[in-house]
Amino acid sequence: MRLKHCHNFEDYRALARRRLPAPVFHYIDGGAEDEVTCRKNVESFENVDLVPNVLRGLGDVDMSVQVMGQKLSVPFYCSPTALQRLFHPDGEYAVGAAASAAGTMFGVSSLGTVSLEDLRRKHKTPQSYQFYFHKDRGVNRAMMERAKTAGIDVMMLTVDSITGGNRERDVRTGFTIPLRLTLGGMASFALKPRWVFDYLRHEKFRFPQLEGHIDMSGGAVSVGNYLTEMLDPAMSWDDAAEMVAQWDGQFCLKGVMSLADARRAVDIGCTGIILSNHGGRQLDGSRAAFEQLGEVADAVGDDIDIMMDGGIRRGTHILKALAMGAKAVGIGRYYLFALAAGQKGVEHALNTLKSEVERDMKLMGCTSLSQLSKTNLAF
Predict the structure, then answer these.
(1) What is the pLDDT of residues 92-106, one digit of tens each?
(2) Three-state SS at 251
């Protein structure tokens, strides 16, 4: 499948399925256990209808938003995700360049495969850092200081991953880092020689953010095992508050879902929260972020910037989230599937979503995203 034949999320998904070995594709595509929450994330948007206004004398539309102290040209950003160089040899380099071209924020993960310093030097667009809280507090302080020195704009502390989710697809395919495959998994790599060739001829796969802190070289360490063995399940609100004070800048909690936790985030001085269930990859059966958004926005929307991710497939989904009270939304699988085609793929995907948002704004009768409200929604 070629990029010119891709017109929506499902097309990019099909492109990735064709280009990536099955274990790698399923790592992106899959969720936890029965993947109920994965499906619910998308279905939640289908349960709310848009109510447009007409005869508004529209001219040009302004798709920009201000969130976490950053000006974004579009109301969506590329959520930080792990292992991006598995999906294409350029990995985060491709995503950062595409996000920069779109005028939006992108993120680097603690499990990223390109150093945050390299990306900061290459791109001036807003950059976030997805931080995993480790058992070793000294490691946490050192990694925070490194991100501050590098010039990271937004710190995102992931709070829904104190242990790894039960991602049964990965167990079935033998997906680990380094790869330790089942027979079926090995066969799928043999059927994707171009991916294998690109993987072998490029820079050795590594985790720059963890180097010097955690030894990831010995044995087959799955992402799930890393989350379970290296991260601290005892992380508390006091720990989060200490990080907020140490960072002394734009700081959000990624993975908040309850109203009580949203209020607590305000109390400890966070400037933002991301309503998220980790794309349905952690606690299966949890509520969709979009379903929680209205209640949380009504309660603390004036006190803290609210973002959400999970299930974004269309420009209309983004408008629904903004009408419900989000300042911006994060996308993950949407750009990761397109990353199978490199920077051009990510640029193509972001432009597709941008075109949808612009067209949908016109059809909704609004020239600015601030004009959207719950009056534009019917339940």
Answers:
(1) 999 999 999 999 999
(2) strand
